[in-house]
Amino acid sequence: MQAGGRGLWCVECPGLEAAKLIQAGEPATQVAKDMGMSRATLYRRIKKLP
C-alpha cells in the first residue's frame, strides 16, 4: 500500500507505447499531450525503460 505522494507509474504500460509512437515519427510533444503529461516528464519516463 502506498502512503501518500504520487501514484505508481507503470513503466511497461504507457512508456513503451510512447516510445514506439515517437520512433514511428509522432512528435513527442503530441504524444505527451495525448498522455496528459509534459514532454519533459515523458522523456524522463522513457529514459527509465529497461
Can you put this structure into words, describing what you see?
- This protein is an all-alpha fold and 50 residues long.
- The protein has helices at 11-23, 28-35, 39-47.
- The protein contains 3 helices and no strands.
- Helix 1 (11-23) runs antiparallel to helix 2 and helix 2 packs across helix 3.
- The radius of gyration is 12 Å and the shape is globular.
- The model has no long low-confidence stretch (mean pLDDT 80).
Strand content: under 5%
Largest sheet: none
Report the order of strands and helices: HHH
Taking Cα atoms only, what radius of gyration do you get, to the nearest Å?
A: 12 Å
List unreliable stretches of 5+ residues: none
What class do helices, strands and sheet pairing give? Answer: mainly alpha
Instruction: Please tally the helical runs, counting DSSP H or I stretches of 4 or more residues.
Output: 3
Helix content: 55-70%
Span of the ends, CA to CA: 24 Å
Secondary structure tally: strands: 0
What is the overall pLDDT average?
Answer: 80
Overall body shape: globular
Q: What is the secondary structure topology, with strand pairs?
A:
Layout: H1 11-23, H2 28-35, H3 39-47
Summary keywords:
50 residues, mainly alpha, single chain
Provide a concise account of the structure shown:
This protein is mainly α. It has helices at residues 11-23, 28-35, 39-47. The chain is 60% helix and 0% strand.
